[in-house]
């Protein structure tokens, strides 16, 4: 069977992209050089858009120089930034899985680092992000009052389809460390129509910073150390007691693997979404840094492709 | 009970459903749009030339339901137009609910607005189909009658883009080739110049936009012939068409309108400003495809390799019918192939030998002949229909063409096939 993958940008204002021009479109078989249609349909025909656009890609995302409105140290080398954006960009970023690239002003483009959006305010035009200083890129982030941003990008979560269809579900969201940040957008999206249980593990943080931004009354919050065996048993009890049918896993790939194992012991049919931990560099499916090698699909670009987290973890964690 | 899953609810799928049901199956049709019959909702021509013979053969083989409905809602019977005799024109605005009711009365389950996007296979056997909403439907035997038209990318690459036809891909999603999903390579039709696919051969004008005189003539006679201004005659366009039976010189120099409820215009597309130069068509509008001034759907890009009993080569429990099963043109051809596939689905599930129609029936011969021809390069450029072109000539040469109903019935009795599709075998 031919591979059929779902591109997060398909049908958006940024589609068709460079990959259409180079014959590498993730979704459209014709734009991959095959003779005939065999796509996974996202409601519009990418090939048709490409031809109507005179065989060139649509305009790509641009850089903006933005003011850092607030900088806050959360301890342990973790920082919160409030960044000014256009109202349009804030609106585009107000959905689970949204992220932007940022880099300190004056630095070359290879300092671009992807950051999940924690909160976006489209009325006033700003976003919040939280990051931990880890490597070269993040070490140079905090040096100026302005920052360069590029966005919107949307593939920060795998399994977005499972999120889209949530209604009257019993959701368990498990967030560890800095990955609490992208969990907030998800909570805001699903809180109205679903029952939410939130497990917070501060990991290497000093505090569960997300609590300062959680104003919802109808969420049950449980604090545990997810890495302890005893507490993992507790997570299973929660899944059974609360008849959980959707789990969101926010943490590292090792963390995802643990959560998937717990789910499989209870009920493998529980839907999973999870944070995308690929090492994303360009976000446009060009550089290849985020490539994952899946069993059936071969090499897949993690920055644009919606991947089944089970497939990904099977390959990535087990091979690592 | 054998669970038969039919993918695609056009004429072929409906015919397959009926014969599978009568043979004793538990039958489900999965159709991506909100209506059965697919292109049959804009078709209408029955019983012209050799189709008369084929229709009568099917009726006596025991697959008369759909032909009877067509006869019942025919706006005109026994009309002639250039190259064609004794045609019936069914009313495209009335046919679909009647067919749907017939299927429902027989106890066939019909799922509309559900689109199959993939299959789950164990070795060479399909276990279930996957739908666009990620749900699964299991079955014992599967019949693919998804046709070969569209989707948008094909209509653009090999035609003039989506012309907004009755299949409505932008709304309901694209056709998916089940055989391709099974890893079986589709066979592709070619045009004389070697390019792939072919345009659908007709478009429909809104009848109320014709002049009053033309409307009256069309309603009375069923056919109206108008002359194309000399400067607008385009013989090249004939080569674009799938319907080689209508690729006659007369069809380039004349405008032929048939009354199928709409005014069926026997050309793939026609620029509106040129059309409006013709007397009586000054205010005319297209009904299907909406952009009939510019283009039409592209077909014949997805033919399954199959045996003469309609089983798909390489998959143990998949049959096919209609356009999916060969370069066939027309409703009659779809019903003939679909009925056989439906009947054989039950035989296949029981491990019985599959029925092959004998070649001294037009229905059996066209199925076998199309298969032989498809194996040659030249054959990829041919289309097969009882209604004209090479196959109708062949019918006449072989003495298969007759409009003598008794003679057809006698032949089927002699072959021991009378009402074979009526037999419940499980």
Uncertain regions of chain A: pLDDT < 50 for 5+ in a row? none
Tell me, rounded to a whole number, the average pLDDT of chain B: 93
Q: Greatest interface and its residue counts? A: A-B, 20 and 28 residues
Number of extended strands of chain A: 17
Name the CATH superfamily classification of the largest domain in chain B. FAD/NAD(P)-binding domain
The tally of helices of chain B reads 14
Oligomer: heterodimer
Helix content of chain A: 10-25%
Structural class of chain B: alpha+beta
Any idea how many domains of chain B?
Answer: 2
Classified by CATH, the class of the domain at 157-277 in chain A is Alpha Beta
Task: Give the class of chain A from helix and strand content and strand pairing.
Answer: alpha+beta
Helix tally of chain A equals 9
- Biggest sheet features of chain A: 7 strands, antiparallel
Question: Strands across the major sheet of chain B, in which order?
Answer: 6-2-1-10-18
Molecular shape of chain A = globular
The CATH topology of the domain at 157-277 in chain A comes to Rossmann fold
**Secondary-structure element order of chain A, N to C:** EHHEEHEEEEHEEHEHEEHEHEEEEH
InterPro entries (chain B): FAD/NAD-bd_sf, MnmG_N
Cofactor (chain B): FAD
Protein name (chain B): FAD-dependent oxidoreductase
Organism (chain B): Anaeromonas frigoriresistens
Account of the 3D structure:
The complex is a heterodimer of chains A (320) and B (426). With 320 residues, chain A is of the alpha+beta class. Among the domains of chain A are: 91 residues, Translation factors (Elongation Factor Tu (Ef-tu), domain 3, Beta Barrel); 121 residues, 3-Layer(aba) Sandwich (Rossmann fold), CATH 3.40.50.80. Helix content of chain A is 23%, strand content 28%. Chain A is built from 9 helices and 17 strands. In chain A, the strands form 4 sheets. In chain A, strands 5-4-8-2-3-7-6 form a 7-stranded antiparallel beta sheet. In chain A, helix 7 crosses helix 8 and helix 8 packs across helix 9. In chain A, 45% of the residues are buried. With 426 residues, chain B is an alpha+beta fold. Chain B folds into 2 domains: 316 residues, 3-Layer(bba) Sandwich (FAD/NAD(P)-binding domain), CATH 3.50.50.60; 91 residues, no CATH class. In chain B, 30% of the residues lie in helices and 18% in strands. Chain B contains 14 helices and 18 strands. The longest helix of chain B is centred in the C-terminal third of the chain and has 20 residues. The radius of gyration of chain B is 20 Å and the shape is globular. The mean pLDDT of chain B is 93. Chains A and B meet through helix 2 of A and helix 5 of B. Chain B: It comes from Anaeromonas frigoriresistens. Chain B: InterPro entries: FAD/NAD-bd_sf (IPR036188), MnmG_N (IPR040131). Chain B: Pfam families: GIDA.
């Amino acid at each position: 069977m031919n591979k059929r993958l779902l591109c997060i940008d398909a049908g958006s204002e940024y589609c068709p992209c460079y990959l259409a021009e180079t014959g590498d479109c993730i979704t459209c078989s014709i734009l991959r050089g095959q003779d005939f249609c065999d796509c996974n349909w996202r409601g519009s025909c990418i090939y048709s858009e490409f031809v109507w656009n005179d065989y060139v890609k649509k305009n790509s995302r641009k850089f903006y120089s933005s003011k850092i409105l607030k900088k806050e140290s959360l301890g342990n080398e973790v920082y919160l930034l409030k960044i000014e954006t256009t109202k349009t960009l804030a609106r585009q970023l107000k959905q689970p899985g949204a992220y932007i690239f940022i880099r300190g002003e004056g630095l070359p483009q290879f300092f671009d680092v992807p950051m999940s959006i924690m909160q976006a305010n489209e009325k006033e035009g700003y976003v919040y992000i939280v990051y931990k200083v880890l490597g070269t890129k993040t070490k140079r982030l905090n040096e100026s009052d302005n920052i360069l941003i590029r966005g919107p990008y949307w593939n920060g979560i795998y399994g977005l389809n499972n999120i889209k269809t949530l209604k009257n579900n019993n959701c368990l969201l498990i967030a560890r460390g800095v990955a609490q940040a992208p969990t907030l957008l998800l909570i805001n999206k699903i809180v109205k129509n679903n029952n939410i249980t939130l497990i917070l593990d501060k990991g290497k943080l000093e505090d569960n910073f997300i609590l300062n931004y959680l104003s919802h009354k109808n969420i049950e919050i449980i604090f545990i150390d997810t890495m302890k065996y005893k507490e993992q048993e507790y997570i299973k009890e929660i899944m059974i007691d609360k008849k959980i049918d959707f789990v969101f896993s926010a943490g590292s790939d090792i963390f995802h693997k643990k959560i998937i194992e717990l789910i499989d012991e209870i009920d493998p049919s529980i839907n999973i979404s999870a944070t995308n931990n690929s090492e994303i560099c360009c976000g446009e499916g060009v550089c290849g840094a985020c490539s994952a090698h899946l069993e059936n699909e071969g090499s897949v670009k993690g920055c644009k492709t919606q991947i089944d987290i089970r497939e990904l973890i099977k390959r990535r964690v087990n091979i690592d | 009970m054998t669970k038969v899953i039919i993918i695609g609810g056009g004429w072929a799928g409906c015919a397959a459903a009926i014969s599978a049901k009568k043979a004793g199956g538990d039958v489900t049709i999965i159709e991506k749009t909100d209506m059965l019959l697919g292109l049959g909702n804009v078709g209408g021509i029955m019983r012209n030339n050799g189709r008369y013979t084929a229709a009568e053969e099917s009726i006596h083989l025991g697959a008369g339901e759909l032909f009877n409905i067509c006869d019942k809602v025919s706006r005109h019977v026994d009309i002639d137009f250039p190259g064609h005799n004794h045609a019936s024109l069914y009313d495209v605005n009335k046919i679909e609910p009647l067919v749907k009711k017939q299927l429902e009365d027989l106890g066939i389950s019909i799922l509309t607005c559900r689109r199959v996007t993939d299959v789950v296979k164990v070795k060479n056997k399909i276990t279930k189909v996957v739908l666009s909403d990620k749900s699964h439907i299991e079955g014992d035997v599967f019949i693919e009658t998804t046709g070969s038209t569209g989707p948008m990318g094909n209509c653009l690459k090999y035609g003039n883009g989506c012309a907004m036809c009755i299949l409505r891909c932008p709304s309901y999603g694209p056709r998916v080739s089940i055989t391709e999903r099974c890893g079986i390579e589709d066979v592709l039709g070619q045009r004389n110049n070697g390019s792939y696919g072919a345009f659908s051969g007709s478009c429909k004008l809104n009848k109320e936009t014709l002049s009053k005189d033309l409307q009256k003539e069309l309603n009375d006679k069923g056919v109206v012939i108008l002359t194309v201004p000399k400067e607008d005659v385009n013989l090249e366009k004939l080569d674009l068409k799938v319907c080689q039976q209508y690729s006659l010189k007369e069809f380039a120099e004349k405008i032929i309108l048939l009354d199928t409820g709409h005014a069926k215009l026997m050309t793939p597309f026609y620029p509106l400003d040129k059309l409006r130069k013709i007397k009586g068509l000054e205010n005319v509008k297209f009904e299907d495809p909406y952009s009939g001034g510019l283009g039409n759907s592209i077909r014949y890009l997805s033919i399954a390799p199959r045996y003469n009993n309609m089983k798909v080569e390489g998959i143990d429990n998949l049959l096919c019918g209609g356009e999916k099963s060969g370069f066939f043109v027309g409703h009659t051809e779809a019903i003939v192939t679909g009925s056989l596939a439906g009947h054989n689905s039950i035989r296949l599930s029981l491990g019985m030998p599959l029925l092959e129609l004998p070649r001294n029936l037009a229905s059996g011969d066209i199925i076998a002949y199309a298969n032989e021809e498809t194996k040659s390069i030249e054959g990829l450029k041919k289309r097969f229909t009882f209604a004209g072109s090479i196959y109708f000539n062949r019918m006449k040469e072989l003495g298969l063409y007759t409009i003598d109903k008794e003679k057809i019935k006698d032949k089927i009795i002699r072959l021991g096939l009378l009402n074979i599709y009526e037999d419940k075998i499980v």
